Amino acid sequence: MKSISIKNNQQIPFDSIPVLEYEHFLDYNTSLLQIEDNHCVNYYGVSQQGNIKLICCVANDKNGLINISSAVVSLPTTLESFSQYHLAFEKFEREIHENFGIQFINHPWLKPVRFPINQSDKNNTIANYPFFKIESEELHEVGVGPIHAGIIEPGHFRFICNGEQILHLEIQLGYQHRGIENLFLQKKKLQELHTLAENISGDAVVGHSSAFVNLWETLCLQKTDGDLHFARTLASELERIAIHTGDLSGMCTDVGYQLGSAVFGRLRTPIINFFQQWCGNRMAKSLIRAGKTNFPFSAELGETLKNVLDKFEPDFEEMCDETFGSPTVMGRFEKTGMITNEIGKSIGLVGMTARMTNINRDIRASHPYNIYATLAHQPILKHHGDVFSRAQIRREEVKQSIAYIRDLFAKIPSENLNRKPLAKPTSNVFAISLVEGWRGEICHCAITDEKGELLHYKIKDPSFHNWLALALAVRNNEISDFPISNKSFDFSYAGHDL
Amino acid sequence: MISLVLIVLTSLFFMGIVIRTKSIASGRKGPGLFQPMKDVIRLWKKGAVYSKTTSFIFQIAPSIYFASIIMAILVIPFCQHKGIISFNGDFVFFAYVLAFGKFFSIIGALDTGSSFEGMGASREALYSMLAEPAFFILMGSFALYTGHTSFHEIFVSLHFGSYISYGLGALATFVLVMIAMIENSRMPVDDPKTHLELTMVHEVMILDNSGFDLGLILYGTNLKFAMYGALIANFFTGSFTILIGILIFLAVQIIFAITVGVLESFSARFRMGNNAQFIFTLTSISILIFFGVLLIMGKFV
């Protein structure tokens, strides 16, 4: 047996993960990715008595299983890279290289990822990042950031341009690194872990906290109550509506379309204000808790939300028609920042970014969690992979989410008044939790020790490997179209840097 | 003299009307009409900060840019009255004194050594260059039509008699409005509100300017708008008395400001690569005016 297959939100004894020789490990996982339905959800290293245990999780979108395999290597070592066979492993291998100093042969781009405090090579700093250079009289370099003119997170973009045309973009991140994965091990109170999960990426609070609580309940072998499943699903779809609408506003701002910028901005407000009514803040923080809820969803709240959506939907539709019917806006959206289906597959895109290149990849459909199994989710796909596709996906996903929420209203479950208190996590287990946040697949993996405490915690935000899509999408575009391309993807800096 | 006073007067509230129009169009109340001017005065009270990498060019550029605009305004006539400076061929002087100011603002931007500012400067230079033929063919056609070569004489002897000449007036207004938008780096060619260095044209050139210099540049934009408005108004006020002329002048300026506001509210900025093409179409519209003039004069064989 080369791997063990588990479902989303399932725990297995840590020892039951098959340990392969590295050559077999490489062969097995790279051959898995030859099949289109498979994609790598996480590949990382765990330090074990001086050795490194590499754990690779490859999800199959067709049968809803996740194949987990591992290999143990001792340091220092030089290994054949996965990336030479499949580019989707590129970012994961860079991370392993950075954390443990493992050298990968034939890796195309073995550069620092986020400069963690416990990195193996302490001489790596943000200041001496090895940027790609092209020597030429005609070309010029443009560096943007890490401090930007707008209110966005820090990140450095270095362009190599031929006049107005971008030849190459290199994205250097790591400015937001907070050591979240280590904090997960240091903090022992569940309340602290919740707060950490909520702050992985400030705009995907529901996504990351759902992933965490689903994982935690799996570790504790707790069966989640129906009303908790309901609230998590509802919050997740509301977050999708709010962020997608806000992003449409941002995209209009970046092309200088004032009407869309103002109206979409206004439309986002009632949705996040509803979170305020529900849980006391507009970011949905403190809403999702493992094994309980502090803010049960009542019938009155349901009535309020229904009114909010009834007012939201026609305005949203009208403004979308107006925006997508405006020739000047379409002139900017169409054929800007294109990613082809082939590139999308090769770099292992996930989430909305994958779906806009016609890759059918949606955790809600392939590895359903919470109550998505009963919703029979149909992913929305677009073909062109340009800014317009991303805008259209946002519009249609907002409509779809509203429809789901209306469906959910049909039966609002009553609060379970005698909940079982959470048990301690099972000892020596491995568990994985996948959630489709509004950006895409969020993956949390945990390993517990013999006392049932966290031994290792691994977070993967969809932005982690999707950032590469932006760098590829802007090639041969005008440099002045970079901001609109960037906003249309809207990746997370904090989610990447952790 | 009257034209200078009127233009300065209009420049005080012109941007205010534009911003107010945009605010109302997006469902907001918007600031007072004199807010942009108050901002400029606030800047004028401040000192400027100069980067160590810049030379004296960067320091003199804003003043020369501003002076060039004042110089250009001096040749603009009003009704029957000449501008403060008026001579044969003064519209050529008008265009090139503005270009001189622009040249200094471009080398001032290059002087900072910033990669953004060089980019902005190259864009601005390209757009001005492409807009130039439109202006000259336009003014040249009217010079041919009236047989005079100074602003004052052209406008005084310009009488709209036939339908074709009304058409010409409308086309000329369109061309001038668009030239004003390009020269002032407004929509749809440039987005003055953007915070994104990479998409800016004019804004990125003045990133390093601060305090008094920035105030001069911003007020220069207000003046330039009022100046082009005055030029448009002159097409209609040539044969009227001063009193009616002033009314028409103010009406034209206000309509012009509202047009700018509406144009900026309901359209997105063009793709940078399409701008050049768009600006060049203005030249073809100017050529239409030229053919119209030939038609009126019976010179079409």
Topology of helices and strands:
The complex is a heterodimer of chains A (498) and B (301).
Chain A: E1 4-7, E2 10-13, E3 19-20, H1 22-32, E4 38-48, E5 51-60, E6 65-74, E7 78-80, H2 90-100, E8 103-105, E9 140-144, E10 156-162, E11 165-172, H3 180-186, H4 190-198, H5 205-219, H6 226-254, H7 258-279, H8 299-324, H9 327-333, H10 341-346, H11 351-355, H12 363-366, H13 372-375, H14 387-409, E12 429-436, E13 441-448, E14 454-460, H15 463-473, H16 482-489, H17 493-497
Chain B: H1 2-25, H2 35-44, H3 56-74, H4 90-111, H5 115-146, H6 151-156, H7 163-183, H8 202-205, H9 211-237, H10 242-265, H11 272-296
Helix pairs in contact in B: 1-9, 1-10, 2-9, 3-4, 3-9, 4-5, 5-7, 5-11, 7-9, 7-11, 9-10
What do these coordinates show?
The complex is a heterodimer of chains A (498) and B (301). Chain A has 17 helices and 14 strands. The two termini of chain A are 34 Å apart. In chain A, a hairpin with a 4-residue loop joins strand 12 and strand 13 (441-448). Chain A has two domains: 1-113, NADH:ubiquinone oxidoreductase Nqo5 subunit (Beta Polymerase, domain 2, 2-Layer Sandwich), CATH 3.30.460.80; 186-460, Orthogonal Bundle (Cytochrome-c3 Hydrogenase, chain B), CATH 1.10.645.10. The model of chain A has no long low-confidence stretch (mean pLDDT 89). Chain A is α+β, with helices and mostly antiparallel strands and 498 residues long. In chain A, the strands form four sheets. In chain A, strands 1, 3, 4, 5 and 6 form a five-stranded mixed β-sheet that branches. Chain B is an all-alpha fold and 301 residues long. Chain B has one domain (2-25, 35-295). The termini of chain B are far apart. The interface between A and B is medium-sized, with 33 and 32 residues.
